[in-house]
Automatic annotation (TrEMBL):
This is DNA-binding response regulator. The keyword Lipoprotein does not apply. PROSITE patterns: HTH_LUXR_1, HTH_LUXR_2, RESPONSE_REGULATORY. CDD domains: LuxR_C_like, REC_DesR-like. Keywords: DNA-binding, Phosphoprotein. Residues 134-199 form the HTH luxR-type domain. Gene3D superfamilies: 3.40.50.2300. Residues 3-119 form the Response regulatory domain. SUPFAM superfamilies: C-terminal effector domain of the bipartite response regulators (SSF46894), CheY-like (SSF52172). GO terms for molecular function: DNA binding. The keyword DNA-binding applies. It comes from the Bacteria. The modification 4-aspartylphosphate is found at residue 54.
Amino acid sequence: MIKLLLAEDQGMMRGALALLLGLEDDFEIVAQLGNGDEIVPRALETRPDVALLDIELPGRSGLDAAAALREALPECQVLILTTFGRPGYLRRAMEAGAAGFLVKDGPVEELAVAIRRVLTGERVIDPGLAAAALSAGPNPLTQRERDVLSAAVDGATVADIASKVHLSPATVRNYLSSAIGKTQTRNRMEAVRAARQNGWL
């Protein structure tokens, strides 16, 4: 049997996935989670062969959990399953050691095939997204620029951002200005939006 861990914050989607995958003769769902912080502890407890992770989860994101899972349980293959088919997310998933990246609008049969393929050592990536990621190029933002933009998400002031990321207001302004230039936008909110659309945040 192929043991699966599912991490998806929407209860109905998680239940539907578990039900559909459970119909496959060789699959066993060993854990269903709605929070990213639970992924590594439950994986160590249940020892899944494949972890299906959503990206946007409460607590730790699926991308962060993928990296932690590869370190804690290297024999577990990670398959990212998301609504957000963004080139930057794909790149980050691959950097985190994910074996596959699929968008949720595909048929469940494709997902079942992908699970079996990653267990044979293959990489499985949504073809349309792979092409988009190649044409989009790498993330131009530094880690500090991403931190500052992430802190600016809710329209925070420079002083708020500075306090949150432990930098001086002048340094925050420099990082914001640099991020705005790199995203070719007019202000910090447009820069946040562009970075999110590309999956850079």
